[in-house]
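Re: beginner question about structure tokens

> Can someone show what the tokenized structure looks like for a real chain? I only ever see the sequence side.

Sure, here's an example I had lying around. Input first:
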Amino acid sequence: MMYLGWLLFTLCATLLTVLIVLHYDKNHSK
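And the corresponding structure tokens:
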């Protein structure tokens, strides 16, 4: 159960990081 929680946490953290990076790149591509 704890493994599943860590997997979900890692997935959310990765997704959030990707979204931030994409948003940052989009704003600085002009």
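Each token stands for a local structural state, so reading them left to right follows the chain. The first helix runs from residue 2 to 27.
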